[in-house]
Amino acid sequence: MSVAFLADKNRSDLSVKDLQNAASKLGIKIPDGPDAEDYLHLLQSVETVMKHIQDSEDYIHPSLSPVETARPRTYWEPKREDNLSNAWRHRCELTAASPTSTALRGKTIAIKDNICIGGLPTTVGTFTELLCPDGHLPVSPIDATVVSRVLAAGATLKGSSNCENYCASPLSFSAATGPVHNAWRKGFTSGGSSSGSATLVATKMIQRETGEACKEAVDIAIGGDQAGSVRIPASYSGIYGLKPTYGLIPYTGAVPLSPMLDHLGPLAANLDDIALLLQVMAGYDGIDPRMTPESPLRHQVQEYAQLLSNFKNRRLDDGEKRGSGLTVGLLTESFEVPGVSDEVRNAVLQSAKSNFAAAGAKVMDISIPMHRDGSLIWTAATRLSMSEWVCQGKTSGFLSFLPPHLQTRWPPDQRMYDLLTATNPAIVNVMLSGPFLQEHFGPAVEAKAHRKVFELRAAYDQAFSHVDILVTPCAPTVAMPHPRMQSDAEGPATVMEKLSVAIGVTTNTAPFNVTGHPALNVPCGFGRVPNSPEVTLPIGMQLIGRRWEDLTVLQAAAVFEEGWNLAE
Fold first, then answer.
1. Whether 184 contacts 538, CB under 8 Å
2. Which residues contact 145 (CB under 8 A, 6 or more apart)?
3. Does residue 193 have a cis peptide bond before it, meaning omega lies within 30 degrees of 0?
4. What residue stretches are annotated with the Amidase domain (predicted)?
5. Cis (ω within 30 of 0) for the bond into 473?
6. Partners of 330 in the beta sheet?
7. DSSP 24
8. Could you tell me which residues are beta bridge partners of residue 529?
9. What spatial distance separates the first Cα and last Cα of the chain, rounded to whole Å?
């Protein structure tokens, strides 16, 4: 590797002692002498280069400049009485001054608070002091690609929705502002980490069904999904939530957890809105390195909404049913994973068998033994690097555009440890895992796990040679009460008390984040809450399709819906 520049030695305060200290962290001793002087000069040179970049003016990619809005971009903290579920983080009222389409006109939308909205802060669900040392949250100078696209499509952006602390929980108790409540039952989880997005959409759906008026609701929302963070909240909240094929929707302008896992996806009360929002968000943006040669250019994006409508309304021939020709596979191992309740297992199995069959689809059992290891492969493939991305804000070796206004605190200190242990010990676990795994396993095991991802993908793809759609339970249970977070008469709330309720929640969802297959939560009934039989909450079924066949997943959900209606 060439050396681009040699600095003036006399302009640097670095000494041989600084060099030797850096070397000692690598287990190397560099004695005083000519070698030390030469290596010092090289360090001084790279220090000068980095200071030059540090002091230079930042660059905002033109396509990420905030969309011109009809009114000035202002925001406000929601009042407690207007935020009873704690689903909002910041409120606004933004519409594009000159929208380029009417696809989302009349739709209100919330954006998960790890996705940049120009003129609003981005808190990633955590504490202000962990994001900025002066206590003042900086506002975003960019619109994430998906934000620009929904505004250009005529949506009214109502604000940022609360998310879990560092987006690192499949439940909804860890946000710095407090727990986000399930739209159906206060005090119960709405799922995470797109907790606020799901609650806001579900609240609007419930309002429409009951005629109740409430200020804290939207028609549609955008969430992020690294292990199930769109689908799990959708399952607990009784709405639809899609994790699209990896690389279909650009992640540009959203805070990453790990690039191979990062997805953005739509949440909505109905399938038509899922298709519509997917169509608006999808397509290559020229910035996100997650997108592949398979990613469609904007003009190549399928017209998901129209195609779904055509499918649902197509005139059927005599004897033909909507699901004729569709083969649905019930993924055997997904119903056997630890933690799936009998009620959820039975509800998903029975509704899938009866409703798909009623609409003319063929339903069969299919075994994929490797699914049992899916969440383990997910962990091994990403845990070593996740701390660097989500906690340290590091870049990787490929070109990327990270949110320019966010600088998370690193290295951690006792105050950071105490705050996060009190609210979300999962992120502390991620922090601790990084150095431990580096020392005891190194990158070789992570690299092997990446190869196992290809094996897992191949196992699912082999199954798709026999079926068009796989079915699994989504969340393993109905929503549960928030865990005890504070000390009380029982004593201090322990780390394991806070985390045990989340163990196994993403077992059926996380594998498809690493393999990239599209997966959709479909509401399929209600179940009783253990120890509270009078309380019933939603159950979700997950539909998985071949990569890049997101439309088939949407059509399969429409077949399920038709079967449901026929069975009534």
1. yes
2. 63, 64, 250, 252, 253, 285, 287, 288
3. yes
4. 98-554
5. no
6. 365, 471
7. H
8. 532
9. 69
CA atoms lying within 13 Å on the CB side of residue 307:
16
Token pair recorded at residue 208: 């429409």
Helices (H) and strands (E) in the chain, counts: 16, 11
pLDDT tens readout for residues 418-430: 999 999 999 999 9
Q: How far is CA 334 from the centre of its chain?
A: 21
93 pairs with which residues across the strands?
none
pTM beyond 0.90: the answer is yes
Q: Which residues is 355 bridged to in the sheet?
A: none
pLDDT digit string, tens, across residues 440-454:
998 999 999 999 999
* DSSP-derived 3-state class of residue 160: strand
Least Cα distance to 377 among 426, 312, 446 occurs for: 446
Residue 466 one-letter amino acid: H
Distance CA 256, CA 253 (A): 9
> What backbone phi and psi angles, to 5 degrees, belong to 88?
-90, 145
Q: How many CA atoms lie within 13 A of 384 on its CB side?
A: 17
* 3-class SS of residue 52: helix
Residue 531 burial (10 A CB sphere; 0-12, 13-18, 19+): exposed
Place of tokens 């499918």: 311
Q: In this predicted model, what pLDDT tens digit does every residue of 228-264 receive, in sequence order?
A: 999 999 999 999 999 999 999 999 999 999 999 999 9
Buried-state track 136-163, b at ≥16 Cβ within 10 A, e below 16? ebebbbbbbbbbbbbbbbbbbbbbbbbb
Residue whose structure tokens are 């620009």: 148
Strand order from edge to edge, sheet including 532-544 = 88-94, 156-161, 108-112, 220-225, 263-268, 240-243, 519-529, 532-544, 469-473, 327-331, 362-366
For residues 94 and 156, is the Cβ–Cβ distance under 8 A? yes
**Arithmetic mean of pLDDT, 506-516:** 98
Contact 237, 191 (CB under 8 A): yes
Residues carrying an active site annotation? 112, 193, 229
For residue 77, what are its two tokens? Answer: 């903290």
